[in-house]
Specification:
Blueprint (H helix, E strand, L loop, with lengths): L7 E9 L5 E10 L4 E5 L6 H8 L7 E6 L2 E2 L5 H7 E4 L12 H11 L4 H14 L15 H13 L5 E5 L7 H13 L3 E5 L3 H7 L2 E6 L2 E7 H5 L2 H6 L18
Parallel strand pairs: 3-8, 3-9, 6-7, 7-8
Antiparallel strand pairs: 1-2, 1-4, 4-5, 9-10
């Protein structure tokens, strides 16, 4: 029986920026294959710094980061960046080609995929996010929610190990929010979601990690963490007025 390494393994990760600001103070985090985990915490907690270490945008810290058993480092950077797909908060940071099809094809084509294999990869990625009928449309003609789904498709086309989402529900109307949630639930991929939208985290991620002042302050079932009023208050996490996380029936 072969041992499958976790999608993500972070050990003792500490990082200081060149100006001396210490953003992480020894983070340990393991995320198993197929898990959906919410990364919560106040502004300035170190969430972005942690995420940027996952695909080698930031390096030079103390500690180790491995993706599916592969150490994150300069030697395997191209493969790491294929395995860790980051969907930015603003889809316009990711969409820059004349058509949706070309945007989704860009990553795999750059990695060397050609011909029918490339067409199949693009079609499959667009199908998974419900945007197959929009392949020939210019991205700037789409709604914000549609552009976010295309941004997800550009990452899925790389067949990543981990899908990292930065505030995926921000600026979405209720219908788009629901459509994206349904898509994310359907994906057979590990998801790490950075969000301030605590009901969305509860809906989509059975597990949550609270990062605060550069350390992990809590790691457990999302519902239990959100019901812990002392924990929430201590780390400046606020639920919407009237929202009771204990009343939500949790799925998987």
């Amino acid at each position: 029986m072969t041992h499958t390494p976790p999608s993500l393994e972070v050990r003792g990760l500490a990082y200081a920026y060149p100006d001396g600001h210490q953003a992480l103070f020894g983070v340990d985090l393991t995320v198993g294959r197929g898990e959906r985990v919410a990364l919560l915490g106040p502004n300035g907690a170190g969430k972005t710094t942690l995420v940027l270490h996952l695909n080698g945008i930031l390096t030079g810290g103390v500690g180790t980061v491995s993706v599916a058993g592969l150490p994150v480092g300069r030697r395997d950077l191209a493969e790491i960046r294929r395995r860790v797909g980051i969907v930015f908060q603003d889809p316009d940071d990711q969409l820059f080609m004349p058509t949706v099809r070309e945007d989704v094809a860009f990553g795999p084509a750059t990695a060397g995929l050609r011909g029918a294999a490339l067409e199949e990869r693009v079609a499959a990625a667009l199908e998974r996010v419900g945007m197959a009928d929009f392949a020939d449309r210019p991205p700037h003609h789409l709604s914000f929610g549609q552009r976010r789904r295309v941004a997800v498709a550009t990452v899925l086309a790389m067949e990543p190990e981990i899908l990292v989402l930065d505030e995926p529900s921000s600026n979405l109307d209720p219908a788009s929010r629901r459509e994206l949630a349904d898509i994310l639930r359907s994906l057979d991929v590990t998801v790490l979601m950075v969000t301030h939208d605590l009901p969305y985290a509860l809906e989509l991620c059975p597990r949550a990690v609270v990062l605060s002042e550069g350390v992990i302050a809590a790691d457990g079932r999302t519902q239990e963490l959100l019901c812990d009023e002392d924990l929430m208050r201590a780390h400046r996490l606020e639920l919407p007025f009237g929202f009771d996380p204990a009343s939500v029936t949790m799925g998987t």
